[in-house]
Write a structure and sequence with these properties.
InterPro entries: Rossmann-like_a/b/a_fold, UspA. It comes from Pseudosulfitobacter koreensis. The protein is an alpha/beta fold. The protein contains five helices and five strands. It has one domain: HUPs (Rossmann fold, 3-Layer(aba) Sandwich). Helix 2 links the parallel strand 2 and strand 3.
Length: 137
Amino acid sequence: MYSNIMIPADLKHTDRMDKALSVAADLAKLYGAALHIVGVGQSQPTEVARTPAQYAQKLAGFAADKSKALGVDFAAHAETSHDPAVDLDAVLVRAADNLDTDLIVMASHVPGAAEYIMASNAGHLASHAHMSVFVVR
């Protein structure tokens, strides 16, 4: 049913991703799907990484750790954005298209007041991506 599963990752909040990663791993085992962790770093230094290359290295390390812990192979794909606050959703949709993704599994927080005004990243992807989106709280 699914052949390519993408999991967006925020390296600032990896502690909140365990459930979504477990769901994606289980689905990949069930369907024999490839798993792609996609992270969006910035072109400018941040608290996560000073350079896009360092961000890609940290994302690859995160993917390797989760691969070992969950018994599956997560491939890391680092994307770079000049301003993720503005274009994160577009970068994720573009990455999903480039990876020929047929399912996005992503972690989400419990909605708050801000989501009444503006869609969350998960809400935006669920509304605008042409592939299925599985939002895990």
